[in-house]
Write a structure and sequence with these properties.
The complex is a heterodimer of chains A (about 475) and B (about 260). Chain A has helices at about 1-15, 20-25, 50-60, 80-85, 110-115, 120-125, 130-135, 145-150, 150-170, 185-190, 195-215, 240-245, 280-290, 330-335, 340-345, 360-365, 375-385, 425-430, 450, 455-470; strands spanning about 40-45, 70-75, 100, 105-110, 175-180, 220-225, 235, 250, 260-265, 270-275, 295-300, 305-310, 315-320, 325-330, 350, 355, 395, 400-405, 430-435, 445. Chain A has about 475 residues and is α+β, with helices and mostly antiparallel strands. Chain B has about 260 residues and is of the alpha+beta class. The model of chain B is unreliable at about 20-45 (pLDDT under 50). The chains are: A alpha+beta (about 475), B alpha+beta (about 260). The interface between A and B is large, with 66 and 64 residues.
């Protein structure tokens, strides 16, 4: 079977991948079965890397008038593959990124440029990750990622044009469609905030023009996967960081007598996953947090206990079985977060300098803080099933620092440094949800998307069940 | 069968440009025969020899392979029987869209060829998921069962001069499945500029999906004809009548054995 698949794959790609098959299907007319539908087709548009800041500036230029908007707080770490996986409840990934450490095999997978080169394949070209397969429209052709990264502005019109064509066809049979745009993320990295704003303004024009061509047929809800700090950053080497604080940076965890750790150095993001021995994790986090390239170091202490180190000092909390949080020293947390947890202590919810609060209250009190929704985001970074091999430590960098990720031959360390994401900071974490169809609260967790919109959850469930078992109904099956 | 009268009108209209050729066919045929004889003496084949269109589903020619000829390629695998030929499109078979076409000659003159092309395509359930990647979304969603397409085309080919050929296909498309059931129509033009025995530049244009989801296409392609090797490639724009547009590419490679 594998041999047959390999032969089919090779033959197919030798002759132009899926393009010919797609072109054939594109010439097949689609009957309009929703011409008299009572509700318009609801288009969910995932805009990679759309920050709240860029959205608000686009609004100041008149875009997205009349749309409802909410702070859309990304997961931690706020990086695309992992964030989309959690937002869309897709199949788990091995780690947060394409490069990952497998503790059972004690092996680092997809290292270096080979791992970076894996991205276009897992992002749609061949055997895509489950999160990318979830989109009804992802990109326009095999060279989509290449064109998008080389010139995100020039590649926006053709990819958006194709998206609207596919949406028009989908809207003839489906009440829900899920589409994706990558360009805003790329231009935020490589062009800066103003270019991201201009791109959003253009996107708004195109959505309005599309809706004008199809009055009453489509309504849009737009959301991102993460924010962007929109600050030029110094590219740094996490291996060097670890060495400078006395932790050996290694590819395998063999030595149990000396501090050693495996940093995931893969693409340019402002967090670093660090794998180490469980009993060394707290010390690796403490030491790392003293380095100027690190803002916070989050560590999984086990049994639902977590610590966040800043400048070598720990703040701790734990997550109870019922999802409630027990915050130790809330006054110190308030100083870190700029929040007002102590207000709850004054309401007699503190005991022995520990504050107990449920998940809902935790979100309400911290979503506006310097590090939005930290307790939920840190705990779930280590426990959510979306990453099968989470690290023991996650280093969250300041907005002005980013892991260099990789070096391209010929040098590229001065390109694409205009803004990063991944960290716990507000800029990195804060995206936006904007909807024409629904009123929204002030702030939402990104991974609540499918709870907010059950029609999208049903759409994805149906799509995935069909992909898993094409003969859903034996009587009607293929 | 025809839901709208103008579908039939279009089909009839598509034949009108051929009428003068038909009317003068005998005379023209005589001139052409002389030229063809001269060409044959030079051992050069007739320039009206493009057997297949390149734009999927809707583009056809009135030309057939000679009896005994076999074409093995990406877009087409065909065997010629003189008055008829049988084909399948291998790249579609590869994706589980089993298909078969038959082309039967109606009129075979030197400068005018007319053929009827009938086909059947079985697009499998959830056809989009057959792709290896997710970068060629089509918007065709058929989760509840296969979609059967039965196109019937009247294909006309005219040699306008030794440098120019015109192919015109008028197609009725019947679709039947759990998700779609309709009759549609389309007209596809293929104009060939014949540079020499090996190279051609072609203009493709047409409208299709009439009565269901109308769209137009315009494209340019180049074709190479070797003794055995045939290569074609091109690209163009597709515009839905509702205003949406997209670019597309077309290509084929084949070996033809006589």
């Amino acid at each position: 079977m594998r041999l047959r698949s390999a032969i089919v794959l090779l033959l197919s790609y030798a002759f132009g991948c899926d393009a010919s098959y797609g072109e054939f299907l594109n010439t097949v007319p689609i009957e309009d079965r929703r011409a008299n539908a009572s509700q318009p087709t609801h288009v969910f548009l995932g805009v990679d890397g759309i920050s709240r800041q860029a959205f608000d500036l686009a609004r100041e230029e008149g875009a997205f008038a009349g749309w409802h908007a909410a702070d859309w707080i990304s997961v931690f770490p706020a990086v695309s593959d992992y964030a989309w996986t959690r937002i869309l409840a897709a199949d788990p990934m091995p780690g947060y990124e394409t490069q990952y450490y497998d503790p059972e095999a004690n092996k680092l997978h997809n290292k270096g440029l080979a791992g970076v080169a894996e991205h276009p394949f897992s992002q749609g070209l061949l055997d895509p990750l489950s999160c990318w397969n979830s989109f009804d429209y992802l990109g326009n052709g095999e060279l989509w990622t290449v064109k998008g990264y080389l010139d995100p502005e020039a590649s926006l019109p053709p990819t958006a044009t194709e998206m609207f064509r596919v949406l028009e066809r989908l809207g003839r049979t489906q009440p829900v469609a899920l589409a994706y745009l990558m360009n805003v993320d790329v231009v935020s990295h490589s062009g800066g905030l103003q270019k991201a704003v201009a791109m959003l303004v253009e996107l708004d024009h195109q959505i309005a023009a599309f809706q004008k061509r199809h009055p009453g047929r489509f309504t849009f809800t737009m959301f991102g996967d993460h924010g962007n700090a929109h600050k030029q950053a110094e590219l740094v080497d996490p291996n060097q960081l670890l060495r400078e604080v006395g932790v050996a940076s290694v590819d395998r965890l063999d030595d149990v007598t000396n501090l050693q750790a495996i940093p995931i150095v893969h693409v340019r993001v402002n967090f670093v996953s660090v794998h180490t021995h469980a009993d060394m994790a707290a010390e690796v986090a403490r030491r790392s947090s003293t380095h100027r390239w690190v803002d916070l170091a989050a560590v999984n202490l086990g049994d639902g206990h977590y610590a966040v180190y800043k400048n070598g000092k720990a703040l701790t909390f734990s997550r109870q079985a019922d999802g409630a949080y027990l915050i130790t020293d809330p006054r110190a947390w308030d100083r870190l977060l700029g929040s007002d947890l102590m207000a709850l202590c004054q309401a007699s919810l503190c005991e022995n300098n520990e504050l107990s609060m449920d998940d809902e209250r935790s979100f309400a009190l911290t979503h506006n803080s310097r590090y939005p929704d930290p307790f939920h985001r840190i705990a779930t970074a280590f426990t959510d099933a979306a990453a099968r091999n989470p690290p023991e430590v996650i280093l969250s960098m300041p907005d002005e620092v980013s892991s260099f990720g990789f070096h391209l031959p010929g040098g590229s360390d001065h390109a694409a440094i205009d803004g990063f994401h991944g960290a716990l900071t507000r800029g990195s974490s804060l995206s936006v949800m904007a909807s024409q169809a629904h009123e929204l609260p002030e702030a939402l967790r990104a991974e609540t998307l499918l709870t907010l919109f059950p029609e999208l959850r049903e759409h994805l469930q149906q799509q995935r069940s069909e992909a898993a078992a094409p003969t859903r109904s034996p009587a009607k099956g293929d | 069968m025809l839901h709208r009268p103008w579908l039939g009108v279009c089909t009839v209209l598509s034949l009108l440009p051929l009428t003068p050729h038909e009317a003068f066919a005998e005379e023209a045929g005589a001139h052409a025969s002389a030229r063809m004889q001269a060409a044959a003496d030079d051992d050069s084949p007739s320039p009206l020899n493009t057997v297949n269109g390149l734009y999927p589903l809707w583009e056809h020619t009135g030309v057939l392979h000679n009896a005994g000829a076999v074409q093995l390629g990406y877009q087409q695998a065909q065997v010629g029987m003189g008055f008829a030929q049988l084909s399948t499109q291998p790249f579609l078979d590869l994706y589980g869209t089993l298909n078969l076409q038959a082309k039967v000659a109606v009129l075979m003159r030197e400068r005018l060829k007319v053929a009827v092309v009938a086909g059947i395509y079985r697009i499998p359930t959830n056809a989009q998921s057959r792709m290896f990647g997710n970068l060629n979304a089509t918007g065709l969603v058929n989760p509840y069962g296969p979609l059967y397409l039965a196109p019937l085309s009247l294909a006309k080919s005219v040699l306008l001069s030794q440098r120019w050929a015109l192919h015109w296909a008028s197609t009725l498309l019947v679709a039947s499945g759990e998700d779609q059931r309709y009759v549609s129509g389309g007209q596809a033009l293929l104009v060939e500029a014949i540079a020499n025995a090996h190279w051609r530049a072609r203009l493709h244009a047409g409208v299709e999906g009439i009565n269901v989801q109308g769209q137009g296409h315009a494209a340019l392609s180049f074709a190479y004809r070797g003794d055995v090797v045939r290569l074609e490639a091109g690209g163009g724009q597709r515009i839905l009548f509702t205003g949406e547009r997209s670019t597309f590419v077309m290509f084929d490679g084949a070996l033809v054995f006589w």
